[in-house]
Amino acid sequence: MATIFSPSALFSSSSSSSTIPPKPPLPPPLTKPQQFTIPPSKPPLTNLTTTLTAAAAAATVLTTTLPSLADSPAAYQIYYGTAASAANYGGYGGNSDKKASAEYIYDVPDGWKERLVSKVEKGTNGTDSEFYNPRKKSEKEYLTFLAGFRQLAPKDAVLNNLALSDVVLQDLIGSAENVSSEERKDEKGQVYYVYEVDGVGAHSLISVTCANNKLYAHFVNAPTPEWNRDEEMLRHIHESFKTVGSN
């Protein structure tokens, strides 16, 4: 017996098979974002050399201690003293007559000023010459002399006698923390008494000798701050004193 196919059934079957939706397309794979690395620019060689040179120069400046005025070597002038009369106050070594008649000499730092000694002062304590630092007048050197001395007395007696006519020296010795004395001779065998007075607020170096039938005393005084700053210079002018001419 023949099978009868219904066209509607066939149509329905084919229609149902044709209505199956297609699969959606797969999305494209994600791609990683590209990273761009900018290479560091190299400085020009000349600029790099200049920078290193400047840095080295700066380091040198920072590590170098600039010399102070106190560290610089001092310059001096020679003072020629006559110890003759109140009218002969003296001057620097440019005066040939002064140099020819000098009885003593000592160094004076450049920039120091001379204080003219009055006749009264010269006759009272025998001050013959004096120079001082204009920035601090109590930092100074001066010389006194007394006639009629052929030789030195004992060291202690000489210092005490000098203090009798010098009030500043009296006060300095009275408040001194230490007073030292020694005897030395120069190349000619002349004897010098050397004193160092370390006071509370000041320092003093004194050199005393006899020559030409006179007693000469050279003083170098300074307040403690100036002494701490200028000790080398002050010791130099102290050691520069000596008598000249016939002894």
UniProtKB/TrEMBL annotation:
Residues 21-31 have a biased composition (Pro residues). GO terms for molecular function: calcium ion binding. Residues 1-44 are annotated as: Disordered. GO terms for biological process: photosynthesis. It holds the Pfam family PsbP. GO terms for cellular component: extrinsic component of membrane; photosystem II oxygen evolving complex. Residues 102-242 form the PsbP C-terminal domain. Residues 1-20 have a biased composition (Low complexity). PANTHER family: PTHR31407, THYLAKOID LUMENAL 19 KDA PROTEIN, CHLOROPLASTIC. This is PsbP C-terminal domain-containing protein. It comes from Davidia involucrata.
